[in-house]
Amino acid sequence: MYDVREWRHVFKLDPNKYIDDELLERVCESGTDAIVVGGSDGVTLDNVLDLMVRVRRFPLPCVLEVSSLNVVTPGFDLYFIPTVLNTNDADWIKGLHVEAMREYGELMDPAELVVEGYCIANPDCKAAKLTGVSKKPEADDIMAYARLTGHLWKLPVFYLEYSGMYGDIEAVQKAAEVLADTETVFFYGGGIKTAGQAKEIAQYADVVVVGNAVYEKPEEALKTVAAVQK
User: Fold this and answer.
1) What's the pLDDT at 41?
2) Confidence at residue 150, expressed as pLDDT on a 0 to 100 scale
3) pLDDT tens digit sequence for 81-121
């Protein structure tokens, strides 16, 4: 079984975005620790399955980040289950999770489930609109959400998501300090377009997630792997 505590770099691929076979091969053979399949809109069972089958040709973990019950399917190594910390919509905190356990609980291997304490720091992104996040958290808020995740709930992952914008490095550093004495793994995602940005974030976050850059600046995206793992 794969252990996220051993990861440093992840590429996040959106099933609703096109990636050709050549680029996908380069991404999967780049030395990244895992491929996470997930997105906020246009995600269907068909395009999730299509991307999973294509990634499965390569010897690295393939993970589904579950944003809808309609796309849950066997075949992934792990399933990331986000509980959105800074939403007022209880469905995204525990409502959909209860529904998933009712419908799929007996079929799921608990060892494959990884719950993410998910803090969305860009209220203008698609993920925020989907989950009902309307206010940008300040650095102190992010620290509190990190404490909630690592100290109180003791979840395996704290995911700070800036989605489309590069994050506040001070907030990232403070979150890392809060989580330093916990077993919670600190994932950061959002706005990383260069190796330099990836290296800066990697000073603080345990795992650096690179997503949109794969489609917008693929050559730069591929350089982030070495920048982080050094």
Assistant:
1) 85
2) 98
3) 999 999 988 888 888 888 888 887 787 888 999 999 999 99
What is the Cα 59 distance to its own chain's centre?
20
Pairing of strands 113-120, 62-65: unpaired
For residues 113 and 181, the answer to whether their CB atoms sit within 8 Å is no
Q: What is the C-alpha separation between 23 and 211, in angstroms, rounded?
A: 13
CB atoms within 10 A of CB 85: 26
Q: Is the pTM of this model over 0.85?
A: yes
Q: Is 145 exposed, middle or buried (0-12, 13-18, 19+ CB in 10 A)?
A: buried
Rounded to whole angstroms, what are the CA distances from 129 to 36, 86, 123, 148, 177?
21, 12, 7, 23, 29
Q: Which CATH class is domain 4-229?
A: alpha beta
Which 8-state DSSP code applies to residue 93? T
Cα distance between residue 118 and residue 159, in whole Å: 5
Q: What is the pLDDT of residues 143-177, one digit of tens each?
A: 999 999 999 999 999 999 999 899 999 999 999 99
Domain range list for the chain: 4-229
